[in-house]
Amino acid sequence: MCFECVTATARNDFKSLVPRTGKALSDFIPKGYDTLDAGQSVARGDLNKDGLEDVVLVLKNIEQENPDNLNDDADRPLIVLFRESSGYRLASIAMNVVMCKGCGGAFGDPFVGVVIEKNILTISHYGGSAWRWSFDTKFRYQNNDFYLIGKTYDSFWINSPCETIGDGARDYYDINFLTGDRIRIKTSEDCKELLNKKDKIKIKPLIRMADSKVIDN
After folding, report:
1. What's the pTM?
2. Quick one: DSSP state of residue 206?
């Protein structure tokens, strides 16, 4: 059996369950799903610059994330809803931008939350054990769709002898896909700076949020 084919079918099945329009947020949450318990799973703010409060929902499959029947790698769909005078309109569904429950390692569920600020949607994750990491992705609505415009990754060793947690064996980068600007910082386990550099990467066509994968971005 083709596992990827089964997964793709399941994701398409979910998308078919979400209506195009609705009066209440609950209209867009299919039967068997609910907003995620972990982190901040609901965000409100203006995403398309029309002055209205749009909403982002991160959902879970209730059965698959039930502690008695836990599927650690179950999809966590993200839904974007544009506010309209009569209710809400579905703007986007992304199936691969929120990490699974088991993706955080010993630290537990890595999902921190979703935030809308200055018309930009940020999705944040945090995980690890003695080695900690954080990963933020930023998406913006432009050209009638949502696109990945930036990402920030930071990892470090919490048991290092450094005065500040986060300085030991640090590996940090921040990329702006709109401008190509990149910041990179690296330190050794004994807190010595190995790299602190600003440079440019080649600007490529932006990735749609619907096509984006949080692990591969």
Report:
1. 0.91
2. P
